[in-house]
Amino acid sequence: MSLFLIVALPFFGALLPGLMNSAGRSACAGVTFTVSLAAFVGLLTNLPSVLSGDVVMARVDWMPALGLNFTLMLDGLGFFFALLILGIGLLIIAYARHYLSRDDNMGEFFTYLLLFQGAMVGIVLSDNILLLLIFWELTSLSSFLLIGYWKHLPEGRQGARMALVVTGTGGLAMIGGMLILGQIVGSYDLSVILANRDLIQADPLYVPALILILLGCFTKSAQFPFHFWLPHAMAAPTPVSAYLHSATMVKAGLFLMARMWPVLSGTPEWFMIVTTAGLVTMVLAAVIALFKHDLKALLAFSTVSHLGLITMLLGTGTAFGAMAAMFHILNHATFKAALFMSAGIVDHEAHTRDIRRLGGLRTLMPVTFVIVTLAALSMAGIPLLNGFLSKEMMLEEATHTTLFGMPWLVPALATFGSLFSAAYCFRLIGHVFLGPVRNDYPAKPHDPGAGLWLPPAILVVFVVGIGIAPFLAEPFVKLVTASVLGGEAEVPKAYFKIWHGLVPALFMSIAAVVGGLLLMAVYNPALRLWDAAPRPEAKVIFEAIVEAVARLARRLILPLHNGAFTRYAVIGAIAIVAAGLHAWISGTAAAPTRTMQPATPIAIAGWLMLVGATCGLVLMHRDRLLSLILIGIVGLMVSIGFAFFSAPDLAMTQFTVEVVTIILLLLALNFLPKRTPVESSVLRRVRDAGVAIAGGLATFTLAYHYLLRDAIGTPISEFHLANSYKGGGGTNVVNVILVDFRGFDTYGEIIVLGIAALLIYALTETLLRGPVRARLLNRKPDQPRAGDMHPMMMVVLTRVVMPVVLMVGFYIFLRGHNEPGGGFIAGLIVSIAVVMQYMASGFAWTSARLKYPYHGVIGAGVLIAGLTGIGSWFVGKPFLTSDFTYVRIPPFQEFELATAALFDLGVFLSVVGAVMLSLESFSRLARRADETDSEYPMDIDPSRDNPPPDAVQPARESV
User: Fold this and answer.
1) How far is Cα 826 from Cα 813, in angstroms, rounded to an integer?
2) If phi over 0 gives left and psi between -120 and 50 gives alpha, with beta otherwise, what is residue 405?
3) How far, CA to CA in Å, does 768 sit from each of 669, 925, 957?
4) Which residues contact 364 (CB under 8 A, 6 or more apart)?
5) Among 122, 178, 329, 623, whose Cα sits 20 to 30 Å from the Cα of 856?
6) Cβ neighbour number for residue 386 with a 10 Å cutoff
7) Helix (H, G, I), strand (E, B) or coil at 671
8) Which of 774 and 293 is assigned the larger pLDDT?
9) How far apart are CA 815 and CA 734, in angstroms?
10) CA 768, 773, 774 angle in degrees (round to 5)?
11) Where do the NADH-Ubiquinone oxidoreductase (complex I) chain 5 N-terminal domain residues begin and end (predicted)?
12) β-pairing verdict for 56-63 and 68-74
């Protein structure tokens, strides 16, 4: 299967769970499982190539001039991580189906999960560092949604914010480091960067690049001092914790360190920074984990500790250390995902994760007990389980590592960390499952159905299988290690076996296990000592730092950005004047060669109307309704001016925008006083008038001199005129520019338009849910209304005209590529038709019949436009490259088919969705209680409109 399809499947599949939500929980989980399974199978189809040592490449040029190409690479390392992401993802999906309650929105959950899965697969398969950075930030955003999935929990929202701030900040630092590497090498392709080790390490910018990249890796993989976010992310549902914090998100930093290992490792800076951070994280987190009473918190800190272990191994810079790191990544993913899911089972059945309220579950939950025991003993490093093998390799590497000139330091700390690791594993088994059965459980514990225990049981099979027969994993781990080492580096000739003789690592392991048992024997005194010891609280420090940064930002921003429009205008004017003076002084001005043309009576009349409406607006600005009418006149005259100067597209766009804007402003002004009070002194108004007049004269002077001169160079319009038809297949140059030559700009604009509409929706929803709601619904109009709210003539006229207007909009859309029109104008025309329905028939009547999810319409528009651009990749063209052809289908004449029409369809849907969502948001605010007006014109219901005299009147809906 194509690498593009493997990456794209989760993203496309993320659209399906929400659509299947109404079909039930099993349908949502089933379609999610199917999408992940398809990507997993597609990955396995590339296994023969990977096993033979080949590197599978896929490349599509997107923006070659910027070095941004959609380039994917599948080698042993990428295959290994993608296998973990998709394989464990399948088990998590099956587990989540039975874990989440009926009150949880399963479609939303699986949508977020697939978005995260796609971003993670994108990271491990990217061959372009800019593309990798995009996927990297997508993991931060999607994990934020997953961690904060239970929005009703304050700790969930706080944990999501903490994770986003920490990992997002690290991601920003990493962007700088990656860009430095790209500048050093002269390419942003990873395959090129990885082949230039000597060039990178000899460059003076190597150390800054290394530090910035490691900041991104350390924040993502929760290395000290950024370790605190991961335990606070445990407020997420257990499937999220099991997925993000065992095999995926926290492993992204480790993956990147492994991917960049050939070019960044082997220097004193790499060794000191990475090894020290990993060693400190390993020991510190292991100690903290032992004294945590929450099951998931214990597992979270144990995860941090094991991530530190892997980081330390990568930091040693040896081939054996890299191999041990890869092996432990595999082992940790299996036993830690099983433990997280088992913790969720205990919480699900016993209704608590507090270890102090548990104990004696061995007889009540025997299946869960077996799963937890095997996984925990593996994490403790007990023989015949996979964790023992990689821990022995870690201890072996530690004995050959010297840090700060002390050969005993790393072995001693590694043994100390392993001791506490064994202790918290023994506590997990003993304090939760052993001991007498209690009679005060919050709920009666029992083993769940197979839907919950089968996924962790499958992982435990790998825990035991690799532990008993490690030779089964040896070829694969060595293949992955070869990809990490890169170049001509030789994979260590180590043997994966249980017994290596009486080596130092064995005695260190025995000391750790025995020490862990002894520590558990004195656990209560140790706990009292821990509770009495002063220690900093990471969350408090984080909140203090965030508050300090916010306070500093306010001090810097408020003097300039204080809400005073005059101040903004002055700053903007100064910048414009300065830029203009610089251009005038340093540039070359063309001589005035054009002659003045006589003004026609029509032009003079239009100019007088424009000036008159503008002056009236200034003089009568306190009358809001009259001001709005005058603004409409100004916009109308500008539209006529565009048409007069042969710019029909601009004229149509300006006119339709004016109509929609006036309607939206009418709705918005409904919540403001009819007249604006006098807000400025006479002196201030005189000053503002002087500034306005000076600005107008300056603009007039600039336009006057510009119109008298020809351009010095060849104007870009000549290129557009020459290539519009042969390059874009259209004779309407304006439309071809929008959907072809500058299609990427247009794509960004419809995204911004959609975001603006969503912000309006969010603001109005906030008002409706807050204390303002009561004031809005009970607000009395400034003046009593006279007459019918919904005149019959208006109602009939709009319903008759609507099909005609929709047909006109469809016609304008189709002709846009060759005649004035297009998706933007057509979208506004259709929006006006629907707006007229709202105005004539009322919000309730219209919204009851137009049950369109306008959020989805915006999303569909952006998606269609994006997919149109992506489609050009499949034919080897850059993003948003259009194509066209001519077909003839009898009895019709020959007509054109252009991919730009699909892009224009996306523009059309985005415009309609944005306008209607904004209108609907304001309309909901405008509804208020009114006992005299019907919201159901031409909808006769005798039982409602003419009830019997003795009938009890039902409560009317507030309108």
Assistant:
1) 5
2) left
3) 17, 7, 15
4) 437, 444, 445, 446, 447
5) 122
6) 26
7) coil
8) 293
9) 13
10) 160
11) 63-110
12) antiparallel
Check: CB of residue 957 under 8 Å from CB of residue 924.
Answer: no
User: Of the candidates 121, 158, 156, which has an alpha carbon nearest to the alpha carbon of residue 139?
Assistant: 121
C-alpha span between 825 and 813 (Å, rounded): 8
Q: What is the pLDDT of residue 678?
A: 61
pLDDT in tens, 578-589: 888 888 788 777
Rg, Å, the chain Cα set: 34
Q: Give me the helix-helix angle, 450-468 and 76-99, nearest 10°.
A: 150
Please tell me what DSSP assigns to residue 149: -
Sign for the CA dihedral angle at 241, 245, 250, 255 comes to: negative
Angle at 493 between CA 491 and CA 497, to 5 degrees: 120
Mind listing the pLDDT tens digit for each residue in 515-566? 999 999 999 999 988 888 887 777 788 888 888 988 898 888 877 777 777 7
What whole-number distance in Å separates Cα of residue 48 and Cα of residue 479? 12
Closest by CA to 516, choosing from 610, 424, 399, 593, is 424
Q: Helices 206-220 and 154-185: crossing angle, nearest 10°? A: 160
Using alpha carbons, list the distances in angstroms from residue 859 to 489, 758, 908.
Answer: 48, 11, 12
User: Which amino acid is located at 658 in the chain?
Assistant: E
| Residues paired with residue 72 on neighbouring β-strands, in sequence order | 58, 126
pLDDT tens digit string along 167-205?
999 999 999 999 999 999 988 889 899 989 889 999 999
Residue 730, strand partner residues: none
The token pair that represents 728 in the structure block: 């874009």
Q: Please report, as a single letter, which amino acid is at residue 103.
A: D
For residue 395, give the nearest of 378, 374, 377, 417 by alpha carbon.
417
* Orientation angle between helical segments 268-290 and 295-315, nearest 10 degrees: 160
- Find out whether 674 and 624 touch, Cβ atoms under 8 Å: yes
Beta bridge partners of 592: 709
Encoding tokens for residue 200? 């990178």
Phi and psi, residue 722, nearest 5°: -75, -30
Q: Give the other-Cβ count within 10 Å of 347's Cβ.
A: 18
> Which band of pLDDT confidence, cut at 50, 70 and 90, is reported for residue 63?
low
Please, where are the H alpha helices in 620-742? Answer: 624-644, 648-669, 682-707, 716-728, 733-736
Strand partners, 73: 57
pLDDT score, position 65: 63
Q: What is the mean pLDDT of residues 464-492?
A: 85
Quote the pLDDT of residue 943.
40
Residue 790: pLDDT band (50, 70, 90) is low
Helices (H), ranges, 433-488: 450-468, 474-485
Cβ pair 754, 766 in contact under 8 A: no
Residue 707, token pair as written in the block: 């119109």
> Distances in Å between the alpha carbon of 649 and those of 733, 848, 861, 881, 895?
10, 34, 21, 23, 22
CB atoms within 10 A of CB 331: 26
Shortest CA distance to 957 belongs to which of 773, 716, 734, 777? 777
- pLDDT band of residue 706 (cuts 50, 70, 90) is confident
Closest C-alpha to 477, from 390, 387, 382, 394: 390
Distances (CA, A) of 857 to 293, 544, 832, 915: 48, 42, 16, 11
Secondary structure, 3-state, 843-867: HHHHHHHCCCCHHHHHHHHHHHHHH
Q: Would you call 939 helix, strand, or coil by DSSP?
A: coil
- pLDDT of amino acid 541: 85
Residues pairing with 897 in the sheet: 885
Sequence-ordered list of residues with C-beta below 8 angstroms from that of 946, at least 6 positions apart, any chain:
none
pLDDT confidence of residue 675: 58
DSSP 8-state code for residue 2: -
Mean pLDDT of 611-617: 87
Neighbours of 523 (CB within 10 A): 17
- What confidence tier does 44 reach under pLDDT thresholds 50, 70, 90? very high
